[in-house]
């Protein structure tokens, strides 16, 4: 029988807080149960297992991120939209490193398709890239380039890996300039392959 007051949504919100406090690896069923002062078994009425909890957490974080990115890019196009999207992404990743790390898992496609946050993320990302006139398969390739650049930069920055005296913000701005140039002069592939 579910414990009064516990819901899947409350567990996921607490897991997000725990991720920021203890890192994404610190999000476990046991740690979450301790947070609520219950036995581990009490949580299984709300989440199936650790994988289910971590998937729900990743989707929750994806929703938080796109809720920050969407207003940042609203009304913008081209390089301005790219810079706003990237800036909101980076800000979230640096402010919430545990949550951000928890979102870097592969989500089952059936679950992703049903996720409003994932659909909204795809819509906002495609909208931001619309000014570059990319079609599939180039659109997927461009999205992969952006995600890997944003993620790599944020991971290195969060880990203190940029040791050169060059200002990290200036390097970020140059990276956005380079991405804009790459997207503007994208080597287009014939459409048809998805």
From TrEMBL:
<keyword id="KW-0238">DNA-binding</keyword>
<dbReference type="InterPro" id="IPR001647">
    <property type="entry name" value="HTH_TetR"/>
</dbReference>
<feature type="DNA-binding region" description="H-T-H motif">
    <location>
        <begin position="28"/>
        <end position="47"/>
    </location>
</feature>
<dbReference type="InterPro" id="IPR050109">
    <property type="entry name" value="HTH-type_TetR-like_transc_reg"/>
</dbReference>
<feature type="domain" description="HTH tetR-type">
    <location>
        <begin position="5"/>
        <end position="65"/>
    </location>
</feature>
<dbReference type="InterPro" id="IPR036271">
    <property type="entry name" value="Tet_transcr_reg_TetR-rel_C_sf"/>
</dbReference>
<dbReference type="GO" id="GO:0003700">
    <property type="term" value="F:DNA-binding transcription factor activity"/>
</dbReference>
<keyword id="KW-0805">Transcription regulation</keyword>
<dbReference type="InterPro" id="IPR009057">
    <property type="entry name" value="Homeodomain-like_sf"/>
</dbReference>
<dbReference type="GO" id="GO:0000976">
    <property type="term" value="F:transcription cis-regulatory region binding"/>
</dbReference>
<protein>
    <submittedName>
        <fullName>TetR family transcriptional regulator</fullName>
    </submittedName>
</protein>
<dbReference type="Pfam" id="PF00440">
    <property type="entry name" value="TetR_N"/>
</dbReference>
<keyword id="KW-0804">Transcription</keyword>
<dbReference type="InterPro" id="IPR025996">
    <property type="entry name" value="MT1864/Rv1816-like_C"/>
</dbReference>
<dbReference type="Pfam" id="PF13305">
    <property type="entry name" value="TetR_C_33"/>
</dbReference>
